[in-house]
């Protein structure tokens, strides 16, 4: 279950406005007059991947228990039972009142961790109220403007130590889990220039002449998908694979016939459909510029990429060739260094099982979701080891990071003055994610985002 966070405070301090801010919708009625909220209202809240249930409560009033305000207060008291945290909201513009102090004394007698929130703190008028809130005894108050969306990052910082471990985002009901995605057939596309041996390689894997092959370039026109079962010699497991053969992809200037244009377009669609793409090189021709263009396209589409050097059985000066291709790949595809590189032979079967075993491993990394707690621990360590620069004396503040998706892994970094962050520091973060969090040579997307007001439009 998601952790539960209760909003508590006297009437008209902005509890329902904060509730609406955190759920991202205007679910709770909001008005200038006090006492609009009477019943508890629950909603699903998310701050940078930290998911929790937020509960809006009636304003706390010091009335007889039998009156309507008294019964509303009783509901608020009951709501605290089983809660993981409480947000005690005060009005920074009005300052503390005797009722605020009474609520604070009651909260100190409870066992629930409390975060003091000084709402309406925008501008200079709220500063004195924020300073007053220190006297409540709940540590550093969070200066916030629920109406304008300011201070939500600070609220994340305050809540994370309390509910972070329990609030890691779960897969939505409509989105397959990581286990379900990895249990399905591996969608493996074989791409490359004409006559690199793509169809011959697939025939070798299948153990039959399933695809037409020959010395002529460009025999394959359609992208052919073949369902197949492979037994991993390393584990003995039988794994399902959907092999996709594609047409050879020549330089765009050389593609003049309409049929070849359609074939190349079909090959590009096959890349979009695939999970892992094997770029097949010809050992007798080495790495050419067109190979790098194909590789770049695969990475731009966010697919997991592997490189296989075919015709290894007839390669000359094999060690020099392998090291040369390795260096050229790292230089030409600097955004993803260390791509898996294999020496194979479609004619003899050399290296094919090793390549397929690695394809399942790279799909696992491509589908991986890092727990929010581990992700933010890494993020804090990365910032401590190499703090962001301060161009022209202006401090760039990186607040937190969340994983927005998988296949390919996508991350969002929140902070301030992110438009001034150098590209070199972005590369530092991407390389750290890949190296420290187990993404190896998988394409990783990092987006920089400054929190905005969702109601601005």
From TrEMBL:
Gene3D superfamilies in the cross-refs: 3.30.300.20, P-loop containing nucleotide triphosphate hydrolases
Top-level taxon: Bacteria
Q: How does it assemble?
A: Associates with the 50S ribosomal subunit.
Stored NCBIfam families: GTPase_EngA, small_GTP
Per its database record, what is this protein's job? GTPase that plays an essential role in the late steps of ribosome biogenesis.
Which region is the signal sequence? none
Write out the similarity annotation: Belongs to the TRAFAC class TrmE-Era-EngA-EngB-Septin-like GTPase superfamily. EngA (Der) GTPase family.
Q: Which InterPro entries match?
A: G_ENGA (IPR031166), GTP-bd (IPR006073), GTPase_Der (IPR016484), KH_dom-like (IPR032859), KH_dom-like_a/b (IPR015946), P-loop_NTPase (IPR027417), Small_GTP-bd (IPR005225)
Q: What is a biological process (GO) this protein takes part in?
A: ribosome biogenesis
**Binding sites annotated in the UniProt record for GTP 2:** 192-199, 245-249, 310-313
The encoding gene is der
Where GTP 1 is bound, by residue?
9-16, 56-60, 119-122
Alphabetized, the UniProt keywords read: GTP-binding, Nucleotide-binding, Repeat, Ribosome biogenesis
This chain's protein is named: GTPase Der
- Name the Gene Ontology molecular function terms of this record: GTP binding
For the EngA-type G domain, which residue ranges apply?
3-167, 186-367
Pfam families, per the entry: KH_dom-like, MMR_HSR1
